[in-house]
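Revision sheet: structure tokens.
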Amino acid sequence: MFGIIWRVTARIRYAVRGLMPTKIVLDALHTRRGLKWGVLAMLLAVPYALAAVFCVGVVEADGSGWLHVAALLFLWNALKLLVAGPMTLMLLLRVRRREATARRRATNAMILGSIGSDRSELPLLSSNRN
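Predicted:
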């Protein structure tokens, strides 16, 4: 019984995932091209926080209590976007370090001739000493 509920919940989540704005943004940020936009995406947390404040204000002015659920949802989305900024910055630094290491290794391999360049392509030293 628990397994059926788990599977149905997972299928609903994956079906609705494309309709959730913060999940779309976070999925785009977690690509190699999107990592550089993570800190700027933190600014998207501001409208979510303002919407949460608005919902709480309406509830305090004798509005529907169900707006507390909307306020929690808005706050959760704002927190996700606030955390995504520094996380994508750290991921970007890690990816760039790996790319630099791979470039350095490829350059060293080319110089040493293990990739197909022969030794005649190495620069000759102009020293005449033996």
